[in-house]
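quick one
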Amino acid sequence: MCASRALPALRATQDRTETAAKLTVASNGDAPVYCYIASSPFKNDYLERVLNARVYEAAVETPLDNAPLLSRRLGRRVLLKREDLQPVFSFKIRGAYNMIALTDMSQYEGGVVAASAGNHAQGVALSAQLLGLRATIVMPCTTPSIKVNAVHQRGAEAVLHGDTFDDAQAHALALAAERGALFVPPFDHPDIIAGQGTIALEILRKHSGPIEAIFVPVGGGGLIAGIAVVVKRLRPEIRIIGVEPFDADAMYQSLQASQRVRLAQVGVFADGVAVKEVGTETFRLCRDLVDEVIRVENDEICAAIKDMFEDTRSILEPAGALAIAGLKRYAQRNMDTSTSSSNSNSNSSSSSSSSSSSSSSSSSSSSSSSSSSSSSSSSSSSSGTLIAIASGANTNFDRLRHVSERAEIGEHREAVLAVRIPERPGAFRAMMNALGPGANITEFNYRYASPEVAHVFVGLSVSDRRGAAAAISKLAAQGFVATDLTDNEMAKLHLRHCVGGMGGPHFAPAHEIVYRFEFPERPGALARFLNGLRGWNITLFHYRNHGSDVGRVLVGLQVPPLERSTFLEFVERLGYPYVDETQNIAYRMFLCPLPKNES
Ligand SMILES: Cc1ncc(COP(=O)(O)O)c(C=O)c1O
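structure w/ pyridoxal-5'-phosphate:
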């Protein structure tokens, strides 16, 4: 992807006002699409746009900080670009201010309009306030009041409309047309991209030494496109690596397919990057300029928030820590690759930073299931400086409960196991002995289930991913059967809190089924569920508020086999995302007594 040939986006220069005049807004039904009028040959120089960007009337030049603890752990220098220190606690002020400041606002008597419930809203509101303009921010009705108030505090009007972001965006476009206001998109516009690109200029000025790679969180792609257009022009040997959550990987999917892919669903844990479809212009630039996209688990994001805290005593929002999680995955992958290649070929290590890009190669990314890469193997055993963009810090305090609970698992420092032990005094001690003297138990839950055996839910400190397997073999050597539940979402979210709540030899609800739901966090969601139940008896109900945008609920119900299809029709109509967990091994072990011959 990142070729040494002339890059189309960087080819020629042209007066920016002329180029801007050739921009038009079309619509694909629910999202604005910025495109260049077909008759105009595509010419513009993004570097020039970035150099001419107006950001410092609103944004500050943020530090490029050392991360000494993370550097030591990864065995290479790690630097963090501290965009969490911007006045609105994220980089989004750069693009928003640049676009508004460069527009002749005398043509827009209605001021500016944007659709956002997040960092873009803050960026647009502050920009308008500084420029003395009217600002209207459209947000979905479900937006928490804390975010609505934050917009009010910047002097903007908040309009609540619709249930989803797409509804809010459609309304914002209509409002902008009706009021004669400038619609400020979150990422897909050259001035937004150029504003974000100023981050790259600051990095290159502050760190003139070798840099192996810059890691950038990706939502719609404005931030990474802006950084890539600068870096690939001035220092093309530096790898530009995008990072996305597995459950919001629109750029990864699009690069794989060589065309924009619209996701049916996106995970909202890292809400700043929860984007169903990347931009047309951002995709065009990323296709040419981005070396690789790495995907990470949400638990790894939690671990990255902890890393940032340990190094700087600052807290990032999930999207803000995404790049650190990707950097860690990359460093770990390359450590593993260089270990295995130095075992097989002791002479194969490369220099600390590739001085010239061999990126015209299009080697596949088959070595890593989590990356979309055009040249991922080119510097696999390098140990150069890595830089991550710490992009934002706007998080709900409540969310930190979930973050701290999951950080150790994301770091692969905690394993969760189900262990079958004999139901007799001394069995727990025997199990501990089997694990060895260094074992550190972090959690332990069990319920008497039969006179013969008990299933124990155990959390265990481990040093890396392989720890769970090592513990299981130690237990097996002493005759204990253990199952690894570390990646079992239902077990981590609910089961640990349910163990002991039900079970026992005499409790066996007939026809029990267990479903896991994501309830929308809004009044009436539970009532809607309960009202539709048609007399099916609830045998289990577990809900835990994780401070996220959805309520995670585990429900057990007695539904006779003949009524199962009616039940399925009900959950489909309900429309809440669900998983049938009735066959989940964790449920079978802890909540549903096994028939005697299986125990
Ligand atoms: C904190 C944070 N990080 C990363 C991003 C992704 O930026 P982009 O949509 O330009 O890819 C956003 C977008 O709003 C964000 O708020």
